[in-house]
Amino acid sequence: MAIAPALIDRHGRTIRYLRVSVTDRCDLRCRYCMAEKMTFLPREQLLALEEIALIAERFIARGVTKIRLTGGEPLVRRDAIDLVWRLGRQVGHGLDELTMTTNGTRLAEHAGTLADAGVRRINVSLDSRDPATFRHITRHGDVAQVLDGISAARAAGLAVKINMVALKGLNEHEIPSILEWAGTNGMDLTLIETMPLGAIDEDRADRFLPLTEVFETLSQRFTLIRDPHSSGGPARYWRVAETGARLGLISPLTGNFCESCNRVRLTTEGKLFTCLGHEDQVDLKAAIRTGGLAAVDAAIDAALAAKPARHDFSVERGAAPAVGRHMSVTGG
Ligand code: SAM
Ligand code: SF4
């Protein structure tokens, strides 16, 4: 197929980053992410592994240099590792980086394979190191499994960044100790504000903790030096002088980052979303099944021509989600 033009949206932003949600399923039920009883997509509605690979390879041909596999929990999909092997072959051949965001429950088993397949860095979500708090937040998770997974990943040579959602009254008191633990073990920490995505069983506003507040508290204990590093995403970074590790803050509700947005998201059902905070999407599953890669190209171009300038999340919405789909569908 002829070389397709670069991916530039109608606001002049070049797209270099694709996130792929390989499954909407998960072995945990984090309270801010999912309801206790979730209805997942029937398997026959999902993109086949081959289709995901073909679409991802097309994005690489059109200038995407970074792909993150996420979900749901990517490692609960049986053929996810086959996809890692397939896309891992593109690293150094158009793709600069293949990464994954995982809850870590199955990392002990898979970390070595991820490293062998070409993954160099992963994000592991860990909202508490306390077994009871972790179990409460995830509704039944075992933190020891995740900590073992993190050790296995580091032993396999993977750089690990910890993602932690800051939750008022649940894990806020643990934030300083997790920052210290992560840093002294050579891991960066990114704190995330809860985002209004998908219906859950509680009101997110009750747990919303502004990271401006967290930053004030952390500044009293740590020397935080602004770090200009940027991933083109919502995170802002600081260097923690005491540990040398990096602290990232993702505050979509209190900060704006959309001007430099360089990413799009593919769901496990084949929908391409150009903004986490909007419903606009195109159907790449229909495109690839009816018209092959030429139709995929046309659909991607249509999506970029409509990419919104910015999200419009708001804290005031309270229980009502800004968009109906959960983070696990679009891919966090
Ligand atoms: N299951 C994997 C995990 O937990 O890392 C990958 C998918 S998960 C949806 C990706 C990230 O999104 C996690 O760090 C999770 O904490 C975060 N997340 C999920 N729902 C969120 C929400 N409503 N607001 C903010 N972050 C959320
Ligand atoms: Fe699963 Fe990740 Fe959502 Fe937690 S945040 S329920 S681990 S998808």
Which small-molecule ligands are present, each listed once?
S-adenosylmethionine, iron/sulfur cluster
The N- to C-terminal Cα distance equals 32 Å
Strand content: 15-25%
In percent, how helical is the residue content? 25-40%
Enter the CATH topology name: TIM Barrel
What is the class in the CATH system?
A: Alpha Beta
Structural class: alpha/beta
Describe the largest sheet. 12 strands, mixed
Number of helices: 10
pLDDT < 50 runs, ≥5 residues: 315-319
In CATH terms, the superfamily is: Aldolase class I
User: How many separate domains?
Assistant: 1
Shape: globular
Mean pLDDT: 91
In N-to-C order, the SSE pattern is EHEHEHEHHEHEHHEEEEEEHH
Main sheet strand line-up: 7-8-9-6-5-4-3-2-1-10-11-12
CATH-derived architecture: Alpha-Beta Barrel
Provide the gyration radius in Å: 19 Å
- For the secondary structure, the number of strands is 12
Explain what this protein looks like in three dimensions.
The protein contains ten helices and twelve strands. Helix 1 runs parallel beside helix 2. Strand 7 (224-227) and strand 8 form a beta hairpin. The chain has a single domain (17-330), classed as TIM Barrel (Alpha-Beta Barrel). Strands 7-8-9-6-5-4-3-2-1-10-11-12 form a twelve-stranded mixed beta sheet. The chain is globular. The chain is α/β, with parallel strands linked by helices and 332 residues long. Bound molecules: S-adenosylmethionine (SAM) and iron/sulfur cluster. Residues 26, 28-30, 33-34, 71-73, 103, 125, 328 line the site of iron/sulfur cluster.
